[in-house]
Amino acid sequence: MSGHIYFTITRDFIEGDQITHADPTDASLYDAYEVIGLSDKLFKYKSVVHEDEFLAKKVADDFTL
């Protein structure tokens, strides 16, 4: 993270049961997000390119699917 911008890069892909390594020179595998909110309970961010918004919330330690 740099300032209020969060960066990601895709390093691998899962295809079936196989892990395929991504090309780190492929710029399409890099993403930048504006951090809208950050606390000990949530992380809200928005894609700089597509403006899609995402929200990650902390769940209880005993949470299961």
Strands of the biggest beta sheet: in what spatial order? 1-4-5-6
How many domains make up the coordinates? Answer: 1
In total, the number of strands is 6
Report the helical percentage: under 10%
Secondary-structure element sequence? EEEEEE
Q: State the low-pLDDT regions, or none.
A: none
Alpha plus pi helix count: 0
Range of strand content: over 45%
> How does the helix and strand content classify structurally?
mainly beta
Query: Could you describe the largest sheet, including whether it forms a barrel?
Result: 4 strands, antiparallel
Q: Which radius of gyration do the C-alpha atoms yield?
A: 15 Å
Task: Describe this structure as you would to a colleague.
This protein is mainly beta. The protein has one domain (5-57). It contains no helices and six strands. It has strands at 5-9, 12-15, 18-21, 30-38, 42-47, 53-57. The strands form two sheets. Strands 1-4-5-6 form a four-stranded antiparallel sheet, with no helix packed on it. Strand 5 (42-47) and strand 6 (53-57) form a beta hairpin. The chain starts with a strand and ends in an 8-residue tail after the last strand.
Protein traits:
65 residues, mainly beta, 4-stranded antiparallel β-sheet, two-stranded antiparallel sheet, 6 strands, flat
SSE inventory with pairings:
Layout: E1 5-9, E2 12-15, E3 18-21, E4 30-38, E5 42-47, E6 53-57
Antiparallel strand pairs: 1-4, 2-3, 4-5, 5-6
Q: What is the gist of this entry?
A:
With 65 residues, the chain is mainly beta. It has one domain (5-57). It has strands at 5-9, 12-15, 18-21, 30-38, 42-47, 53-57.
